[in-house]
UniProtKB/TrEMBL annotation:
GO MF terms, alphabetically ordered: oxidoreductase activity, acting on the CH-OH group of donors, NAD or NADP as acceptor
UniProt keyword Oxidoreductase, yes or no: yes
InterPro entries in the record: 3Beta_OHSteriod_DH/Estase, Lipid_A_modif_metabolic_enz, NAD(P)-bd_dom_sf
The keyword Secreted belongs to this UniProt entry's keyword annotation: no
Xref: PANTHER family: BIFUNCTIONAL POLYMYXIN RESISTANCE PROTEIN ARNA, SHORT CHAIN DEHYDROGENASE_REDUCTASE FAMILY 42E, MEMBER 2
Protein name: 3-beta hydroxysteroid dehydrogenase/isomerase domain-containing protein
Pfam (any one): 3Beta_HSD
Length: 349
């Protein structure tokens, strides 16, 4: 049996770190990272090649040094960055990875996309992979991620390279520096009584360990001798916990798990009123060169139904979310508390 050597592009990020951990946990010995920075907690058995995916030479060098046969590409820009930067990282960086992979004989490429590549700002119920790319997209991030996904999928079968793209939604879990801290920060600041929208919109969340597992399953099935190879190569898959819930139910689960009292009375700000307030805040903060505390994207994010059908991933990848939303929330809050523990008081800072 031929074993793969893995290069995790973006291996210092949230998803990348969990993919590396799961590869090591299942006994893989040839795992390396390519990232613009070192991981927060480097593993001495995992080489880290510091490089930039906008530079083909950095990618080629990492592939050569790691002797990779499989690349898992989790790197991307953050939403809200300037358009030019997002194009450089998400589109050109991904083209560079595909080019380097083909030139160096890589046989497998698993790409981390986003469920929002099909999201145009309107309600989506039980959407599956037959849905077209959004036109227009709600922001530059989702548009550039969609373009990058096209690059990856169109490359499948060229030069001996086979590819697949995974579309996770609402990632959360330990090591998360965005979703969990921001939601727990709402409870800490005493704003848990505020609600944007009527909370009738369902939303998909994905525990980070489940998403990492899906990437390994996809990589395994990109082997031409795997019985499900033809179901995976050149295909995209939605990845979620398969358990959509009203949007505000998730942060309230986190708050309750963290020991915060859920307010008995909720102040509901209707969606369109919240959108108008966000528009004004963005304008004035732009004029004052400040960061707005509420944006139109936040309102869209909190008030729109977006949930996916993961039947295709269940069938082709044999994907099954092992960690439930409740268990994932417990693990995440425990991690968050450890991260915010005050050494002097022993309490939450």
């Amino acid at each position: 049996m031929i074993t793969d050597s893995y290069l995790i592009v973006g291996g210092s990020g949230l998803l990348g770190q969990h993919i590396v951990e799961q590869l090591l946990d299942r006994g893989e010995e040839n795992v390396a990272i390519l990232d613009v920075s070192q991981p927060p907690s480097p593993n001495p058995v995992v080489p880290v090649y510091v490089g930039d995916i906008t530079n083909v030479g950095d990618i080629v060098s990492a592939i050569e040094k790691s002797h990779a046969t499989c690349v898992i590409h989790t790197a991307s820009s953050l939403p809200g960055k300037p358009r030019h930067f997002q194009e450089q990282v998400n589109i050109i960086g991904t083209r560079n990875i595909v080019q380097a992979a083909i030139s160096k004989g890589i046989t497998k490429l698993v790409y981390t996309s986003t469920a929002s590549v099909v999201f145009a700002g309107k309600d989506q119920h039980n959407v599956n992979e037959t849905a077209p790319y959004a036109n227009p997209h709600v922001d530059d991030y989702n548009e550039t991620k969609a373009e990058a996904e096209k690059v990856v999928l169109e490359a499948s079968g060229k030069g001996g390279l086979y590819t697949t793209s995974l579309r996770p939604a609402g990632l959360f879990g330990p090591k998360d520096r965005l979703t969990i801290p921001s939601m727990m920060g709402v409870a800490q600041s005493g704003r848990a009584h505020l609600q944007l929208g009527d909370n009738e919109n369902l939303f998909d969340w994905t525990y980070i360990g489940n998403a990492a597992k899906a990437h390994l399953l996809a990589a395994d099935r990109l082997s031409p001798n795997h019985p499900k190879f033809r179901l995976v190569a050149g295909q995209a898959f939605f990845i979620t916990n398969g358990d959509p819930r009203p949007w505000w139910d998730f942060p309230r689960l986190l708050w309750k798990t963290g020991g915060y009292k859920i307010p008995e009375k909720t102040t509901v700000i209707p969606k369109y009123a919240a959108y108008a307030i966000a528009t004004l805040m963005e304008f004035f903060c732009w004029a004052l060169r400040r960061k707005p505390s509420l944006t139109r994207m936040t309102v869209i994010y909190c008030c729109t139904s977006r949930w996916c059908d993961i039947s295709k991933a269940r069938h082709a990848l044999d994907y099954n979310p092992d960690v439930s939303i409740e268990e994932g929330a417990k693990i995440s809050v425990e991690w968050w508390k450890r991260e915010h523990q005050s050494p002097s008081t022993g309490g939450i800072s």
